[in-house]
Amino acid sequence: MTNDGVQSDLKQIVVIGGGASGMFSAANVARELQQKQAKVRVVVLKGPSKVKISGGGRCNVLHDTTKPISQLLSSYPRGSKELNGLFNKHYTPSDARKWFESQNVQLKTEEDGRMFPVTDSSQTIIDAIENVAIKAGVIVKKQCKVTHIQCQMKENEEINDLNKSKHRFLISYRTNNDESASKIEADAIILATGSSKSGYELAEQLGHTIVQPVPSLFTLSSKEYTKPGNLFDGLSGVSVPYAETCLKVKVPGKKKKKQIVQNGPLLITHHGISGPAALKLSAFAAREFHNLQYHTSDLYINWLPILSEGASFSDDILIGGRKIDFPIRNVQELNDQLWTLTNNIPKKVIASNCPIRRSVSTGEERKTVGLIPKRLWKKIVLHSGFDENVSYAEAPKKKIMTLSRNLMEFQYEMSSKGVFKEEFVTAGGISLKEILFKNMSSKKCEGLFLCGELLDVDGITGGFNFNACWATGRISAKGVCEFIEQEVKA
Q1: Nearest residue to 195 via CA among 454, 428, 432
Q2: Do residues 414 and 220 touch, judged by C-beta distance below 8 A?
């Protein structure tokens, strides 16, 4: 018997962290070894979990698994190269969907690609994973905080290289109900502590390098433009179906600034901007925003990116009632088009309605809708220096140019970052160079496997982070099974 009451011939796997990826890994490794009738015990040292709050409590469990993997990978600011092999060769998003369906979890796909259980309850996902774990004999110790992991040689030798030595692990942990430290031995560890500081510290104890974690997926706040009387005052809740955000960043040794660009729907809030176009930019420029301390005036909004996207949209875009049959690529070209309105619709009041419209079908009829909502259009016109009742015939050329610039290159003053719903995603974690992704094993410490948000992998909002959690969790389970089988043979 060992000091934690385990028979000496019984192998023990300890999963540290009982969140989405950790519990999924534990359930899969226990079930697979149970089917092989292996003498193995799986123990989860479970801390706080955020599965239940993801997706507003509904659990955005996956992203549309019918989409090509290459398209899904484009939604990962970090880790797409590593996930490419994982998704294509080892565990696809479709495999994850089939796993949940095999547990009688019915899933639905919403218009934006997010997938949820039809119950709209995250408890459905939690129950599915925990039921498999319980049936497979997983032991869950709740409210545990692991404080230290020590490697012990299996024979009386010194440990010089954790990745080559044959060792067991001695894990020290505390629970909420017990101030004294408890200990548990393990032949293999699955580290799945999410983006917690304590998890990074444990990884460092075992030889891993941590890429500095910084926030990702946040809203872009602006004290300036939400002030009373300024551009966004009174516009909270107004959304633009398709906009473009751009952060310009200085690059040492280069005159031209690097541009990080994202597009999609944009939402104006009480504090600034949110929605996919803002959130995706926050993710893909997470480190740049961090270096800028979340304060910059080098952030630009193009309210009309559809104009520059070419022939695929040109047949139904109109300016002042005239169809545009060529892309409008920059401020000057838009200015030229708007200036023609001083002759084409001279009596129209500029602030009253957006002249840049799209023709859409409504059954048998077609109608035109403004590409910019009326309230926002009026605010942009006034912000460009026009009085409320000025017509196109009275428009000064300089102000038309200012309006054109505010429509395609609106300079946004960001003063801070905000929180996106209950989600908290980080960019950073264990360096991916130190992980063998075909089985999620550590290159630094034999017997250690890694999965979930602990890694330097993150996706944008929409189920992508769970895609990665299920894949890394399942493959870490497979890796541990193979490792334990080799240990038994040895």
Answers
A1: 454
A2: yes
For 243, half-sphere exposure in the C-beta direction (CA atoms, 13 angstrom radius) is 31
CA distance 200 to 455: 9
Q: Which helix (H) or strand (E) holds 215?
A: strand 210-216
Place of tokens 């891993």: 208
Q: Which two tokens stand for residue 434?
A: 């130190």
Q: How far apart are CA 490 and CA 483, in angstroms?
A: 11
Give, to the nearest 10 degrees, the angle between helix 397-408 and helix 331-339.
130
Reported pTM = 0.88
What does the chain come to in residues?
A: 490
Q: How distant, in Å, are the alpha carbons of 37, 79, 90, 360, 449 from that of 474? A: 19, 17, 9, 45, 11
pLDDT tens-digit profile of 388-433? 999 999 999 999 999 999 999 999 999 999 976 655 789 999 999 9
What single string gives the DSSP state of each residue in 1-59?
Answer: --TTS--TTSEEEEEE--SHHHHHHHHHHHHHHHHTT--EEEEEE-----GGGTTTTT-
Contacts of 202 (CB under 8 A, 6+ apart): 16, 146, 149, 191, 193
Residue 357 dihedral angles phi and psi, to the nearest 5°: -130, 165
Query: In sequence order, which ranges of 193-296 are alpha helices (DSSP H)?
Result: 197-205, 276-284, 286-291
